[in-house]
Task: structure prediction
Amino acid sequence: MNRWASKVAVVTGASAGIGAAISRALTKESVKVVGLARRGQRLEELTDQLGKDKFFPIVCDLRKEEDIVKAFKWIDEKLDGADILINNAGVADVSKIIDTTADEYHRILDTNIVAPGVCAREAIKLMKKRGIDGHIVNISSIAGHNAEMVSIPVGMYCASKYALTALAIELRHEIELADLKIKVTNISPGPVMTDMLIKGLDLRDLNDARTLRVADVVNAITYALGTSPLAEVYDVIIMPMLGRKMLRAPKLS
Result:
């Protein structure tokens, strides 16, 4: 991680959960963090904890392209660009595709896949402008690989995470064609004990042994960022130990 000291990381959904935790971890490594989120008060509280010279809060509605573009313009003008992008923001709740409106579809897809695409586009522009070796990390989900494991109705959530898997592949193709040195990594955890799990999906009673801690995801992110310039981590799948039972085929009689 030493090579990222004094560099700039943009973290979406930075006001809580994985976003706040990775912001703390990066500032400890002397990385300047720009935190994007809708909840300004949470961002200000995190600024007070981490320091105004280490954490730079920007209130941003990631469903609005103009908010994202404005945020990256500020980053370019005030911090001379971005070196790392952590596409962390995401939403999930209990909903059914067959019972909800297109507006609900767009709420999930705009946050979970369109926003990461727009953020990646803007970050790559700044990285290309400076000719740097950058890194984009998408926080995806096991739902983007094995939707069969999700036994409750989550509407467009799984579809959005499969799309995030494809987004990473497309970005790598385009980055290679443009002859840029920017890595793209997807981190795909199983259930993580965050507000999304507790409030969004109402799984507060899920056994601890069947969930991951936020620190497990943060460790995976820092591992991917810490690899040498010659190594690119494509995808990290992390499951809780008892989660392996969900992947086992039924016994034959």
Q: What stands out?
A: The longest strand covers residues 182-189. The two ends are 51 Å apart (CA to CA).
